Amino acid sequence: MNALPPALAGREPRLVLASSSPRRRDLLSKHGFVFEVLTTSVEELKDPSCGPIPLVQKNAQLKAWPVASLRPDCVVIGADTVVAFGDQILGKPADLLEAAEMLELLNGQEHAVHTGVCIVHGLSGREAVFIETTLVRFHKLTVQERSLYHQRIDPLDKAGAYAAQDDHGDLIASTTGSFSNVVGLPMEALKKHLTSFFSTATLDPKN
Questions:
Q1: Which of 87, 93, 154, 89 lies closest to 116, judged by CA?
Q2: Closest CA to 161 of 189, 188, 136
Q3: How many CA atoms lie within 13 A of 73 on its CB side?
Q4: Which of 54, 83, 95, 96 is most buried, judging by how many CB atoms fall within 10 Å of its CB?
Q5: CA–CA distance from 4 to each of 1, 96, 153 (Å)?
Q6: 80 in active site
Q7: What separation in angstroms does the CA of 9 have from each of 23, 97, 130, 149, 199?
Q8: pLDDT for 61-81, tens place per residue?
């Protein structure tokens, strides 16, 4: 594991995750980050006409900046993930029927998972935004197999109605790109951006 910058490895929670996602919390913890979780009531954009990449970028910013105003001396991470199949954007399903429809749509097909990440520091006004895309291909499953899969997970709080972190090869046939991105945070890219964010310029707004 790469050594973390001193500002990220200290005991004080200099890093704040602006997300209530348990999967994002787990990813940060497993990679050795010390952080706190803080969220605000933000109405996310859901207009599919703008396209998946602009959508996740804007939503990541919408999540990060309000938290940065509450913790201006901390570095805040906001993130948003969507599943895209062709021109269709698949967020979290509204109910089990929509979840089943999503899994049927993706069945045996390749789709893209886009995550927008926004890193901000309130006092200095610094911001770093990036997008990570992973291609995911599903196995071809029967209706019964898809139903049994949804019985094992809670599809309603997951983009695309599936859980990559709980997959043991029964749903996902292959991935191209960051697997952690499919879970909720592209950790390889995030660590590089955080290291650059802390090391390339001062966080002191007076300089």
A1: 89
A2: 136
A3: 3
A4: 83
A5: 9, 41, 33
A6: yes
A7: 20, 44, 23, 38, 14
A8: 999 999 999 999 899 999 999
Token output for 72: 């201006």
Residue found by looking up tokens 């940060």 in the block: 28
What's the pTM value of the predicted model, to 2 decimals? 0.86
pLDDT digits (tens, 9 = 90+) for 127-173: 999 999 999 999 999 999 999 999 988 899 888 999 998 777 889 99
Residue 152 φ/ψ region, left for φ over 0, alpha for ψ in the -120 to 50 degree band, beta for the rest: alpha
Nearest-angstrom CA–CA distance, 96 and 182 = 21
Of 47, 80, 157, 166, catalytic: 80
Q: For domain 6-199, give the CATH number.
A: 3.90.950.10
